[in-house]
């Protein structure tokens, strides 16, 4: 079933890590195989933040194959070497978990070439690349992932997240949402629903040089939008095209460095409740997600079928 | 349980065409006989006094706990119960088979007031998906907006939303009346079988898709008609009924019902006249 949530503070910052944790935890009954956060933090915008993994979480009901932890160190070493080859300078590095890392990088060249080189290392996946975006995803519910990665102190402008019940692909980090809109800096996507023309679209996009890291149908949305934007479409134009280009039932959120958007399929088959004010937009699969940040009585509504909306910070 | 008899007397509702179809075969059409009213009994119902009023705060309660508390209060004879801080919780006020004044001071989540028979409910907030699903009788008034599948499969009673509603309102509706003060989403009246839907605002695509029977009245624009939904003549009798219904519902009292569009089933789908022999056998 899955649950999605998102919020954007307009003209302000807040503790978005803590807020999103509350929203996603309220939706945990919709799935707690994995939980993911795409947080847009307050940064100086100079360097890239790269979140990446060198292995999978093999505990907690994971469908991944157990690996010797020593391979993580080997992969990290190769990644560090490739970064040097690419002319990227590591400003700061943090190893959050044996398989999960966060680098601050000075780099000013093509992100597609960069990503292809880094991800050519077996078992390595870039979860996000951006100047304010950080994608953190792992197995377990929102509270567990938040605690594991110390997210509750993260201050930023906006965030989207996903509580997953795995149905069509494995219980692992690579199939967890949000998905980075490779190769675009600071683009992320979460989705609730099923896409029925996944393979047709995937084949077309792969022939155009786009990359897929999982077999999760939701990843298609990120890649689809990234390809549209690569060809000059705005985010909103890409989202509107997706209403006919993607087949199936879906409600999805997409976020960029300075905006947050939602799209709902033409049958309105998947839920979404929306609260909108001058300084805050909060939305989720169920009203209880919004209630975790706004417990007082508020005006909310369900967007109609085929609606696309985008808000700026 | 009541021993229902078919009333020979033609009711006003029948004369107005509300029960237009005549069911045959194994399915028997039976109407409520007032003479048998005293024989109606539901297990777990109570005598309540509407003047006996109380409040409960459900902020820190799970839905089961809150619903159990409502049941206990009815058992103690409370006929008016005010629920404070529902805060979008799911499945509140479900399965109430009693006469009761129930007031929610806030918004409900999914499946609020489902499967109920008799209460009069006022919700001073919004409701999530599938509000009042399977309602048999009673009245539910929502002051703000509602989610999708509003009034799914209701069989009777009045369901009123003063704001706008999501998709598939009145899906599989089998009776009763749904009244929307604002707009309604796609597939409104999808597969409805009986009853009426009134929408004062606009409605989305595929209105009345695959409807078997029943009537939909729309005051605003229609996105598109669904399969087998057709426009019908709005009669004087329809207009009288609409005016009375809107007045009783305290919604759109001055609305010009003469300009509404009436939508009914065209009855041209396969299940009416184009059955294959094997399908006919299966249907029997």
Structural description of this entry:
Chain A is of the alpha+beta class and 313 residues long. Chain A has helices spanning 16-26, 70-86, 111-118, 142-149, 198-207, 219-230, 235-245, 287-291; strands spanning 3-9, 34-41, 48-53, 89-97, 100-106, 125-130, 133-139, 156-164, 179-180, 188-195, 248-255, 259-264, 273-276, 280-284, 308-312. Chain A has a single domain, classed as Aminohydrolase, N-terminal nucleophile (Ntn) domain (Glutamine Phosphoribosylpyrophosphate, subunit 1, domain 1). In chain A, 26% of the residues lie in helices and 31% in strands. In chain A, the strands form 3 sheets. Chain A has a 6-stranded antiparallel beta sheet. In chain A, strand 9 (179-180) and strand 10 (188-195) form a beta hairpin. In chain A, helix 5 packs parallel to helix 6 (219-230). Chain A is globular and about 50 Å long. In chain A, 51% of the residues are buried. Chain B has 2 domains: 1-41, no CATH class; 48-283, Pectate Lyase C-like (3 Solenoid), CATH 2.160.20. Chain B contains 5 helices and 11 strands. Chain B has helices spanning 12-15, 63-75, 236-248, 270-273, 277-283, and strands at residues 49-57, 78-84, 101-105, 117-123, 137-142, 158-161, 174-180, 194-199, 215-218, 229-232, 261-265. Chain B has an 11-stranded mixed beta sheet with strand order 1-2-3-4-5-6-7-8-9-11-10, with helices on one face. The A-B interface holds A 266-269, 271, 273, 286-288, 290-291, 295, 297, 299-302, 304-306 and B 87-90, 106-107, 109-110, 125-126, 128-129, 144-148, 163-168, 183, 185-187, 204-205.
């Amino acid at each position: 079933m899955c649950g999605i949530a998102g919020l954007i503070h307009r003209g302000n910052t807040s503790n978005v890590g803590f807020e999103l944790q509350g929203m996603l935890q309220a939706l945990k009954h919709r799935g707690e195989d994995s939980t993911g956060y795409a947080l847009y933090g307050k940064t100086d915008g100079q360097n890239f933040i790269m979140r990446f993994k060198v292995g999978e979480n093999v505990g907690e009901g994971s469908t991944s194959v157990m690996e010797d932890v020593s391979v993580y160190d080997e992969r990290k070493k190769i990644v560090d070497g490739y970064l040097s080859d690419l002319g990227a300078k590591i400003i700061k590095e943090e190893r959050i978990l044996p398989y999960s890392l966060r680098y601050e990088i000075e780099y000013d060249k093509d992100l597609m070439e960069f990503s292809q080189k880094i991800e050519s290392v077996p078992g390595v996946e870039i979860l996000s690349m951006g100047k304010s975006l950080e994608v953190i995803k792992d197995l377990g519910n929102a509270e567990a992932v938040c605690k594991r990665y110390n997210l509750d102190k993260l201050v930023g402008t906006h965030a989207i997240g996903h509580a997953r019940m795995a149905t069509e692909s494995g219980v692992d980090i690579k199939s967890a949402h949000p998905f980075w809109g490779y190769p675009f800096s600071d683009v992320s996507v979460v989705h609730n629903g099923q896409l029925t023309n996944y393979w047709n679209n995937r084949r077309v996009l792969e022939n155009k040089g786009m990359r897929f890291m999982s077999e999760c149908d939701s990843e298609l949305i990120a890649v689809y939008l990234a390809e549209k934007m690569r060809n000059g479409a705005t985010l909103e134009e890409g989202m509107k095209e997706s209403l006919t280009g993607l087949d199936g039932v879906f409600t999805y959120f997409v976020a960029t460095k300075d905006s947050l958007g939602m799209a709902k399929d033409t049958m309105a088959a998947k839920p979404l409740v929306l609260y909108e004010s001058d300084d805050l937009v909060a939305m989720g699969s169920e009203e209880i997600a919004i209630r975790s940040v706004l417990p007082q009585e508020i005006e909310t509504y369900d967007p109609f079928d085929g609606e696309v909306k985008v808000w700026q910070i | 349980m009541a021993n229902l008899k078919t009333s020979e007397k033609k009711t006003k509702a029948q004369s107005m065409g509300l029960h237009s179809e005549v069911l045959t075969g194994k399915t028997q059409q039976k109407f409520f006989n007032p003479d048998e009213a005293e024989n109606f009994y539901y297990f777990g119902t109570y005598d309540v006094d509407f003047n006996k009023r109380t409040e409960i705060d459900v902020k820190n309660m799970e839905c089961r706990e809150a619903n159990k508390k409502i049941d206990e209060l009815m058992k103690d004879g409370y006929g008016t119960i005010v629920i404070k801080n529902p805060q979008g919780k799911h499945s509140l006020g479900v399965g109430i088979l009693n006469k009761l004044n129930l007031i929610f001071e806030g918004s409900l989540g999914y499946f609020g007031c489902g499967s109920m028979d008799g209460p009069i409910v006022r919700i001073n907030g919004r409701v999530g998906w599938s509000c009042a699903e399977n309602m048999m009788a009673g009245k539910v008034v929502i002051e703000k907006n509602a989610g999708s599948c509003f009034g799914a499969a209701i069989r009777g009673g009045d369901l009123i939303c003063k704001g706008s509603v999501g998709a598939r309102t009145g899906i599989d509706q089998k009776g009763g009346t749904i009244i929307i003060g604002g707009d309604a989403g796609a597939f409104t009246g999808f597969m409805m079988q009986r009853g009426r839907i009134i929408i004062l605002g606009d409605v989305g695509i595929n209105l009345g898709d695959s409807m078997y029977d029943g009537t939909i009245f729309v005051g605003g624009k229609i996105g598109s008609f669904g399969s087998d939904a057709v426009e019908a003549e709005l009669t004087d009798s329809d207009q009288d009924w609409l005016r009375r219904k809107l007045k009783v519902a305290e919604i759109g009292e001055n609305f010009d019902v003469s300009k509404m569009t009436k939508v009914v089933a065209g009855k041209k789908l396969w299940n009416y006249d184009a059955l294959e022999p094997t399908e006919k056998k299966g249907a029997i």
